[in-house]
Design goal:
The chain is an alpha+beta fold. The protein has 2 helices and 12 strands; from the N terminus they run αβββββαβββββββ. The strands form 2 sheets. It has an 8-stranded antiparallel beta barrel.
Amino acid sequence: MIFITFVQLIACHLCDIAIAKSLNVKSLFFVFIAMTVGLHLSGQDNFKLAKSNVEMAGTSTLHEWTAVVTKVSGNGQLVLANNALNSIKSLDIIMATNSINGSEGAMMDKKMLKALKEKEYPSMTFSLTKVNSITQKAGEYLLETLGNLTIAGATRSIPLNVSSRLNGNEITFNGTIKVKMTDYKVAPPVMFLGAVKTDENVTISFEATFVKECQH
C-alpha cells in the first residue's frame, strides 16, 4: 500500500513537471510570435534620399534673386508602425555647395561660392537632432524638430517645422528654413564694386523624398 502511494506521488510529480514544461514551451512560443509580429509591425528602417528640390531665395539692392541646389544626397532611420510614421531616429541631408545654380548668372554664382568658402567647405549639411512632436492630420504629418545646419563650416542649432506624407515605401518632407548669412560668418556677396549688394537674409525651401532601402 505504501509502495503504491509512493509510486502515485512520483507519477503526479512527473505529470506536474511535464505540464510545466509544456506551459513553458507554449509560453515561449507565444512570446516569440508576439515579438516577431511586433517587429514586423513596428521596425526601424533605413531610408535613402531619392529625389529633392532645394531652392534658395533672397533680395538685393537691385532685385530679388533665386538659386537651386542640384546635387543633394541624404539618408535616415525611421520607425514605421502599422503603415504610419512613429518616430525618426536620424535624418541627414548633404548639399554640394558647387552645385548652386543662381538666377543672376555665372558672375553671381562665382561670388556666392566664394562667400560660402566652397573650396574649404564643399558641402552644406542638415542633421536632425531631436523630434519634439509628430502630429497626424488629414493624411499629413506635422513635425516639430531641431537640427544642426552647417554652412561654410559654421554650425548652428535651428528649429524646423516640417510637413510630410507617407506613401508606401516613400516619405516626402517639405519645409522652409530662414537663414541669416552673417550667423554663419558668410559675408553677403556684392557686385559692381558694391553697387549691388545682397541682403543677409536667405530663405531655403526644400522638398525631399526618401525611399526605404531593401532589407537583405
